[in-house]
Amino acid sequence: MFDEKAQLYTLEAVAAASIMLIVIIYAIDATSMTPLTASTSSVHVEAELIAMGQDIFNILDYAEPGYRSRLKMDIAAWDGKEYIWSGSNYTVKGTTNVTGKLTNLTELLNVTLIKQGTAHNLDLVFLSRRPDNTTYPVKVKIIYNGDPSNNAVIVSRKIVLQNSDNLNPTNPIEDIDLSSNFYNIVDIKLTLWRM
Amino acid sequence: MGLIEDNDAQFMLLAGFLIAIGLVITTVMLNSIIFEGNMAIGSVTGDSKYEMVNLMQITTDEIRSAYRNSTEKDINKTNSTRNFTRQVNNFSADLPKIYSMYGGGAKITYENWTNKGPANFTENGRPGGNNNWTVVEGVIVKNLSVFNFTINLTGSIFKIEARNPTGSPVWSIELNTTHYNVTNVTNSTFMLIPSDRVFNLTSPVYYFNVSTSSYPSVSIHIIYGRNAFGTYKILGLANNRNFTRERDYVLNTTVALSTSKVKANISMPVTVPW
To answer: Which residues contact B228 (CB under 8 A, 6 or more apart)?
Structure first.
């Protein structure tokens, strides 16, 4: 038996079901959109922040033969204190003392991230020596401006320090190899996020 | 007039409607797939390339530092290679601990200069490297403190040339298998190559200073670098900054990086000491 009406009703039902499905999916997507929800634009913002962070490290970590990079000089000169952005300067946490040791880093962060209103933290991961001479990674803060948001990105740069880099005596990075000029490996991590 | 019941027309309309919905859904899905695919590829290639370059850089830094430190400390080749190996081994053992914090891995393999000849005079120090290249530009001749070459020929001709700021040659030394020929703007000197093959080019016998000191600065070039191997050391002032250009050997090194996104092995020549 060939029933055209039944076919028509079936097709109408399929169309109605498709429309209902689309409406439900759209409603779920729309209601879950909050300011922190990842979207096409936030992915692009993250990509831009990563590119900016990498550029900052590329600029700071360049050195001609016979010279040390500005990044290495700053890390070697660091006094072990934690710094925060106080609105006009990077100051030692809990004081009004302005940093005089991280000059190259803070100068560049000031004209790039601060000017754009990009929040940032700077952490160091380096190796520490146990009494049995084995080593393990340790993380410390250099610049801390609060907990990052869900859209934060992390860019890292590794450098190698030598005994001849003459670290600041109050610098917590220790010499993990007493038998040679090799001093430590440091991973500098820049966390960036939009406020 | 009553409503005309036309089932065929209703079928056609409904079918058209369904096809339109299908097209919309397909377009949206395709867009999402292409976007996610591009983002995934972009993040893997971009970040991994950056990580890889960083690993190559710190490995190069460490090998050069170990070479300089060991050769400055001890001129005896056995002792200096032992010190070099100890330092790079310690670096190599600690390197994976930094990467392992993020679920990655890194490994380096390297060689020392025992049983190894000096580098070629090409740009990267390898036999197939760039033949004609600029060693340094903007050299202020009166502040040039060291300008030494040790040269062994493998081809018929090798040349070191100084050019003035406009790019014209003002001095050169050209070597063949037995003799060298120093040429400046006024004359030419033809002499036997010294037996130790060492050329201290700031020495008056090579006429470098007298030929070039009237210019505000000169650039130093190597021509036919593939035809010779040896070492060089040039120290001085260029563009108002102290500079160092020095090369003894090319050490073959391999770095391997392993992350959740990518695994890569790269072989690279590391020139030492700089």
So the answer is: B120, B121, B151, B152, B153, B154, B155, B158, B175
* CB atoms A158 and B39 under 8 Å: no
The predicted pLDDT at position B122 comes to 96
Give the separation between CA A156 and CA B11, rounded to whole angstroms. Answer: 61
Mapped onto helix, strand or coil, the DSSP state of residue A31 is helix
Is the separation of the CB atoms in A193 and A90 below 8 Å?
A: no
Report if residue A178 sits inside a domain. Answer: yes
| A11-17, long-range: CB < 8 A, 24+ apart | A11/B11, A11/B14, A11/B15, A11/B18, A12/B14, A14/B18, A15/B14, A15/B17, A15/B18, A15/B21
Pairwise CB contact (< 8 Å): B94 & A177: yes
CB contact under 8 A, B97 and A5: no
ipTM greater than cut 0.85: no
Contact yes or no for A47 and B69 at CB 8 A: no
Task: Work out the percent of chain A whose per-residue pLDDT is above 90.
Answer: 61
| Tens-digit pLDDT profile for residues B170-192 | 999 999 988 999 998 777 888 88
CATH 2.60.120 fits B133-239, yes or no: no
Q: What is the overall mean pLDDT for chain B?
A: 90
Q: Is A31 domain-assigned?
A: no
Give chain A's domain count. Answer: 1
Query: What is the extent of the structural domain holding A125?
Result: 38-194
Could B66 and A180 be called an inter-chain contact, meaning their C-beta atoms sit closer than 8 Å?
Answer: yes
Q: How far apart are CA A183 and CA A180, in angstroms?
A: 8
Residue A24 lies in a domain: no
Whether this model's pTM surpasses 0.80: yes
From chain A, the residues in CB contact with B98 under 8 A are: 125, 127, 137, 158, 185, 187
What pLDDT, in 10s, does the model give residues A42-78?
A: 778 888 999 999 999 999 999 999 999 999 999 999 9
Predicted local distance difference test score (pLDDT) of residue A175 = 95
E strand or H helix at A175: none
The yes-or-no verdict on residue B1 having pLDDT over 60 is no
Determine the pLDDT at residue B3: 63
The verdict on residue A81 lying in a domain is yes
Q: Which two tokens stand for residue A14?
A: 């399929």
Task: Give chain A's contact residues with B (Cβ, < 8 Å).
Answer: 4-5, 7-8, 11-12, 14-15, 18-19, 22, 40, 43, 47, 50, 54, 61, 64-66, 125, 127, 135-137, 157-160, 162, 164, 176-177, 179-182, 185, 187
